[in-house]
Specification:
The protein is of the alpha/beta class. The protein is elongated, with a radius of gyration of 22 Å. The chain contains 13 helices and 14 strands. Bound molecules: zinc ion. Zinc ion binds next to helix 7.
Length: 421
Amino acid sequence: MRGVSYCGDMQPWAPVDVPRLAGEGPALRLHDTSTGRVRPTAPGREALMYVCGITPYDATHLGHAATYLAFDLVNRVWRDLGHDVHYVQNVTDIDDPLLERAARDQDDWVVLGMRETALFREDMEALRVIPPRHYVGAVEAMAEIAELVGKLLASGAAYRCDDPEFPDVYFDASTTGRFGYESNLDEATMLRLFAERGGDPDRAGKRHPLDALLWRMAREGEPRWESDLGPGRPGWHVECAAIALNRLGPRIDLNGGGSDLAFPHHECGAAHAEAFTGQHPFAGHYTHAGMIGLDGEKMSKSRGNLVFVSKLRAEGVDPNAIRVALLAGHYRSDRAWTADLLDTAQARLARWREAAALPAGPAADDLVLRLRTHLADDLDTPRALAAVDAWAAEALERRGTDGAAPGLVRDALDALLGVRL
Ligand code: ZN
């Protein structure tokens, strides 16, 4: 698939200046869902990272922000280690939830998608998330997605369901012989999550309930794209598989997203890619960020309990404080967003700024080493932030005479944590 012509990727957001720090930290270790362990990452000179993007039917909430901030730290740590990070992210700008929302609000799905994608880019820029090199919408990738589906069909990894009216194309989950390896779930759990998260286990005419949709034949009134498969539109998982394979190749270092993507999305995407390439595993690490809750419940569109980044920004909240608040918890833990969390982060940021504005402070080489060491340990941001607190406390007690320290601390926080003091 590599070498297929593609063009017109969406514009990502503005680039972020990342200061270079002297020296080097330990190799990055990250949790991998497929093995259930924290293992070293081992990218080559070029580190290949694919993080699943949004379905743009609602603004960026803090759950999204936490996920993209976690993988922004991966990006920063790898860059600090000298890797050239090739980061790709998609936008699912055609899918059932987008169409359903547009219909509910009597909105045009194209306009809705463009509006929310623009807002997402603004939020990412405000949070100083390093942009992906390729930011790709499903609509603009339609030809390559259809091509991958066609190849899976031709190889026998996919089939048309037994429905004369709508012979949709499904992936045969038994193809690779290892379906379930990525999420490590038993079949009963897979079936439950498949039904809960957009799958169609009960669709008549499929060979197996867990077979995932690759190409949906056009229904009356639905947007459609012409292809050799017949007019229709793609399933979600194959969208990411095609976009990743064509830009990053058959084997990537990291496939990331929120923990609700571990199954079925990443399981199916990996199976599609592996069925096509014959190589296993598709990703060296499958890494998942925890969910952000509000008032004891997971923040989600269906519950309607979302806190939006754009709304906080409009209220004048410093995006650096949002970053510090979300990084105060470990990326893998499900955690709550509270007013206290934001207040604490704002106070913390103010203290750090006061300390870093002093003419001198305690030598900061040890702090840089601790930041690198904690981040390399599965992005242990709570300990990294505590190390900054300790340096700031000493500096504010005027216990340092190193005139270069405040500047080094500013650079280190900027480079490694993405926090600008
Ligand atoms: Zn994806």
